[in-house]
TrEMBL record, chain A:
Keywords: Membrane, Transmembrane, Transmembrane helix. The lineage of its organism: Bacteria, Bacillati, Bacillota, Bacilli, Bacillales. Pfam families: HAAS. The keyword Transmembrane applies. This is DUF1700 domain-containing protein. It comes from Paenibacillus plantiphilus. The chain crosses the membrane at residues 82-103, 109-131, 143-162.
TrEMBL record, chain B:
It comes from the Bacteria. InterPro entries: Metal_resp_DNA-bind_regulator (IPR052509), Tscrpt_reg_PadR_N (IPR005149), WH-like_DNA-bd_sf (IPR036388), WH_DNA-bd_sf (IPR036390). This is Transcription regulator PadR N-terminal domain-containing protein. Residues 14-82 form the Transcription regulator PadR N-terminal domain. SUPFAM superfamilies: Winged helix' DNA-binding domain. Pfam families: PadR.
Length: 186, 106
C-alpha cells in the first residue's frame, strides 16, 4: 500500500513534534489521499502530486520550530533549533544562515564574557584594597563600584542585544519560510 | 512560471479563497493547483503554518461522503492579514504593470 507507506513515513519524520499537533497535521494528508482516491485517482498518482514526504516534513518542522521559538520569546535554544531546521531544508545556504548566526552568537558570548570579567576585576579591586598594598580602602571600593556598574550595564546591554538578535533571526526565518521553493513541479 | 514567485502569492490565494466561506484542505489544494501549476503538497504545510500563526482556525465537519473533513476558517487576525496582503499585492502589480508598459510601448 503506497498510501500506508507514505503516511507512515511522514508520521515517523515528524517525531520531534508533540502528538496532538502531529495528528492534526496528518489529518490533511489522510484526507487528501481519501478524497483523491475516492474520485478515482491511483495512490501512486496522489503520492506523486503531494511530493516527497521528507520535504513536507522539513517544511512542517521549520514552521513549527519558528513558531515555538517565537512563543518562547526568542530563547536561544529554540531560535537555534529553528535555524537548524531552516538549514536542513537545504534551500538556505549554510554560509548565509548558519555562518552569520554562529558569528552573532560568538559576539554575544564575547560581550557576556567582558561583563563577567568586569565584575571579577571589581572583586579583585576590593581584595587588593583590603589585603594588598597598592590601593587604599576608599580607592579600592570606588574602583570596584565603577567596575561592577560597568559590568552590570554591559550584562544588561548584552541581554537586550541577545533578544534583538533572536527576534531578527526569527523574522528572517519567517520571511524566508514564506518563499521556500519546491522542485518537484516546475 | 517561476516557483519562487508562485510560492509568494500562494499565501494570498489561500487566504482569499477562504474570505467568504470555510473550506477544507483538499478543496483549497485542488482549486489552486488548477489555476496555476503549483505542487499540491506545498499547500498543506502553508495551511498549517498560517494556522500556527493564528490566521486560521480549524474544525471538523461531517461530510455526506464519509468521515468528517477538516475545515479552515479565517480568523479576524487572518482577515486583516488578507487585507494587508491584498493592498501590498495591488501596489506591487500596478508598479510592475507600469514598468512593463513603459518598457514595451516606448
Amino acid at each position: 500500500m503506497i498510501r500506508q507507506q507514505y503516511l507512515q513515513q511522514l508520521w515517523e519524520l515528524l517525531s520531534p513534534v508533540p502528538e496532538p499537533i502531529k495528528r492534526d497535521w496528518m489529518y490533511d494528508y489522510e484526507e487528501h489521499f481519501r478524497i483523491a482516491t475516492e474520485s478515482g485517482r491511483s495512490e501512486e498518482e496522489v503520492a506523486a502530486e503531494l511530493g516527497d514526504p521528507r520535504q513536507i516534513a522539513k517544511e512542517l518542522l521549520l514552521g513549527y520550530r519558528v513558531e515555538q521559538a517565537a512563543d518562547k520569546n526568542g530563547s536561544i535554544t529554540h531560535v537555534s533549533r529553528a535555524v537548524l531546521a531552516a538549514v536542513s531544508l537545504g534551500f538556505f545556504n549554510l554560509i548565509f544562515v548558519l555562518g552569520p548566526y554562529i558569528a552573532l552568537l560568538a559576539i554575544l558570548v564575547a560581550f557576556y564574557t567582558v561583563s563577567f570579567a568586569l565584575c571579577v576585576v571589581a572583586l579583585g579591586a576590593i581584595y587588593e584594597s583590603i589585603w594588598g598594598t597598592d590601593l587604599t580602602y576608599l580607592q579600592g571600593s570606588s574602583l570596584a563600584a565603577v567596575l561592577m556598574g560597568l559590568g552590570i550595564l554591559a550584562g544588561i546591554g548584552t541581554h537586550r542585544l541577545a533578544r534583538g538578535v533572536a527576534r531578527m533571526t526569527l523574522n528572517y526565518l519567517k520571511f524566508n519560510s514564506k518563499m521556500i521553493t519546491r522542485g518537484n513541479k516546475k | 512560471m517561476n516557483v519562487q514567485f508562485k510560492k509568494g502569492v500562494l499565501e494570498l490565494c489561500v487566504l482569499t479563497l477562504t474570505a467568504w466561506e470555510d473550506r477544507y484542505g483538499y478543496e483549497l489544494a485542488v482549486s489552486i493547483s488548477q489555476k496555476f501549476e503549483v505542487a499540491v503538497g506545498s499547500v498543506y504545510p502553508l495551511l498549517n503554518r498560517l494556522t500556527m500563526e493564528g490566521y486560521f482556525s480549524t474544525y471538523l465537519r461531517e461530510s455526506p461522503e464519509g468521515p468528517p473533513r477538516k475545515y479552515y476558517k479565517l480568523t479576524p487576525l487572518g482577515h486583516s492579514h488578507l487585507i494587508a496582503l491584498t493592498v501590498e499585492w495591488r501596489t506591487f502589480a500596478q508598479a510592475v504593470d507600469e514598468i512593463i508598459k513603459e518598457g514595451v510601448e516606448r
